């Protein structure tokens, strides 16, 4: 997507053909910095520290991390070690495990001397596949937006509410929840996005608003608790969010606060859609509330905030009294009954086992093995 006059992906192979470039998302929106990852440990740290984040991008980064490891040491022991290290970096997003298992399944039968080239080829393919998936999500989600546009008066805007960042920064390019928005905007539709700030890391205010602004999409940043009010007053036409894991029965695990948006949408008759790339489906899990591990992150994300001062300095300040305990759950689960539909690369699906299995039979077969 665009950053100024240049096109960027969120991750790429550098010109040397082996090291990996990425955007340091911890520095946004005030400072655009790219980094070079030259080891698998650096890739693991990038995931763990949220230099890169978003389920699809985590998967792509992990795949490149395994390629970097094979370049350094293509032995069986190194393959097992890097798989173990990378899989422990983030517990909730299933794309991480999916990508690592894809890589290990490919590499294990190969002789060591063939593993490096194969690893880079598969990691690059995973990145390209992510872009194609997101473009498919965009086309299918665009149809939903255009149906709403057909009910509007000439020039009347379509209001989309989203939560966290499910944009191109969370994927390799295009994004999941934002892909339909970008396509609608590029086709000339009058589309506007309500951007939840998404405490405590503020990925909506810091990342989604930043990328929408660079693409020229009209948007408004709102406090997390504003969405229900907007829905009550007819100011939201549809909600589109991303996801870090979807169960076989259609439960959706996404950034903390998503469940509350789904409840408000349900109460006000606002369609609630989830943009779902197929590697995010976990056919081994049925009940999201009981079975999906929810990451608990450090207290400092809640107790402190980082921002830019009036004179341009980046400062971190404490906002919670010393001694007050903090709980910081990273995700919550929205039951399938609250989801209007799942926007996938193969169409808009009902959030249930039959629809997911019919659309992605190869994934159900793999899960059964």
UniProtKB/TrEMBL annotation:
One Gene Ontology biological process: L-methionine salvage from methylthioadenosine
Role, per record: Catalyzes the interconversion of methylthioribose-1-phosphate (MTR-1-P) into methylthioribulose-1-phosphate (MTRu-1-P).
GO molecular function: S-methyl-5-thioribose-1-phosphate isomerase activity
Record-given protein name: Methylthioribose-1-phosphate isomerase
Family: Belongs to the EIF-2B alpha/beta/delta subunits family. MtnA subfamily.
InterPro entries named in the record: IF-2B-related, IF-M1Pi, IF_2B-like_C, Initiation_fac_2B_a/b/d, M1Pi_N, NagB/RpiA_transferase-like
Enzyme nomenclature, EC number: 5.3.1.23
Site, as annotated: Transition state stabilizer: 164
SUPFAM superfamilies the record matches: NagB/RpiA/CoA transferase-like
Active-site residues, Swiss-Prot/TrEMBL: 244
Recorded superkingdom: Bacteria
One Pfam match: IF-2B
Classification lineage: Bacteria, Pseudomonadati, Pseudomonadota, Alphaproteobacteria, Hyphomicrobiales
Catalytic activity entry: 5-(methylsulfanyl)-alpha-D-ribose 1-phosphate = 5-(methylsulfanyl)-D-ribulose 1-phosphate
Top enzyme class: isomerase
Keywords assigned by UniProt, alphabetized: Amino-acid biosynthesis, Cytoplasm, Isomerase, Methionine biosynthesis
Annotated binding of substrate, by residue: 53-55, 90, 203, 254-255
Pathway: Amino-acid biosynthesis; L-methionine biosynthesis via salvage pathway; L-methionine from S-methyl-5-thio-alpha-D-ribose 1-phosphate: step 1/6
